[in-house]
Design brief:
By secondary structure, the protein is α/β, with parallel strands linked by helices. It is built from eleven helices and nine strands. The strands form two sheets. The protein has a seven-stranded mixed β-sheet, with helices on both faces. It has a two-stranded antiparallel ribbon with strand order 1-2. Helix 5 (137-153) links the parallel strand 5 and strand 6 (157-163). Helix 5 runs parallel beside helix 7 (177-190). Acetyl-CoA carboxylase is a heterohexamer composed of biotin carboxyl carrier protein (AccB), biotin carboxylase (AccC) and two subunits each of ACCase subunit alpha (AccA) and ACCase subunit beta (AccD).
Length: 291
């Protein structure tokens, strides 16, 4: 018995109690099914059970969008830090420091240029992982820099949106980025360059009220929440039950607010095709007379 109890039993218990790494499995946010993380990554963060499109990081967006994942990130202009010396549970400067360490990003938007479907393009990606993709002065600087780079290179600008809205720690300065980004979009229009917006879950607040809804072509990932105020806020305001799927991508498509809903795996091909078509149209149009 001693051999069984002292050697065999501990071995069996060791096999049964073998620890599983914390990052091996994850659960779908929509259906709750367990998914192997490596399978989820292979599927571009789309649930293989229900097709739910989970959030993606800035690095993933660039890797999935550009040809062979090759692109050049640009250094963005610096914005004033903590212009209001704001403090809630912690100082705004401390919050920014923590978020930068956690996300490995400087701010809530990153910009890169490269080729999509063989066509040159500038891509700006909002980082939901950085303070929920909120819009502050730094994001405004990044968006304007992306628009200027597109004009300089004479290429389309593609923006992936994902945001909780304005950044309360910057107050009115955050709201000022709405007209500022709108002016940057107009700069692209005057240069005759395509501006394509890809709306991802969620896109809300001041971002929706400004540059997110001004694209020449509006694309959305499936079932993305898109709106200004959230559904609960609207229900409390109008005191009515909202329709099923209200503010979701498919509902907006049905009501003419966006142009298409595209699965993540199909986005690079669709974007490349759109850029080719819009570039061809631009080349076919006569030059605009100088004002």
């Amino acid at each position: 018995m001693s051999w069984l109890t002292e050697y065999v039993r501990p071995k069996i218990r060791g096999l049964l109690k073998r620890e599983v790494p914390d990052n091996l499995w994850t659960n779908c946010e929509s259906c709750g099914q367990m998914i192997l993380v490596k399978d989820l990554r292979k599927g571009l963060n789309v649930c293989p059970h229900c097709g739910h499109h989970m959030r993606a990081s800035v690095a993933e967006r660039f890797a999935w969008t550009f040809d062979q994942g090759e692109c050049t990130r640009i250094e963005l202009p610096k914005a004033p830090v903590d212009p209001l010396t704001f403090r809630d549970r912690k100082r705004y400067t401390e919050r920014l420091k923590d978020e930068r360490a956690k996300s490995q990003l400087d701010e809530s938007m990153a910009v890169a240029h490269g080729r999509i479907g063989g066509h040159d393009a500038v891509v700006a990606v909002m980082a939901f992982e950085f303070i929920a993709g909120t819009m502050g002065a730094a994001l405004g600087e990044a968006f304007v820099a992306a628009a200027r780079l597109a004009v300089l290179q004479k290429t389309p600008l593609i923006v992936f949106t994902a945001s909780g809205g304005a950044r309360m720690q910057e107050g009115l300065i955050s709201l000022m980025q709405m007209p500022r980004t709108t002016v940057a979009v107009q700069m692209l229009r005057e240069a005759g360059l395509p501006y394509i917006v890809v709306l991802t879950h969620p896109t809300t607040g001041g971002v929706t009220a400004s540059f997110a809804m001004l694209g020449d072509v509006q694309i959305s990932e499936p079932n993305a929440l898109i709106g200004f105020a959230g559904p609960r806020v609207i229900e409390d305001t109008v005191r009515e039950k909202l329709p099923d799927g209200f503010q979701r991508a498919e509902y907006l498509l049905e009501h003419g607010m966006i142009d298409m809903v595209v699965k993540r795996a199909d986005l690079p091909e669709i974007l490349g095709r759109l850029i080719g078509l819009l570039n061809h149209r631009q080349a076919a149009e006569p030059a605009r007379p100088a004002a």
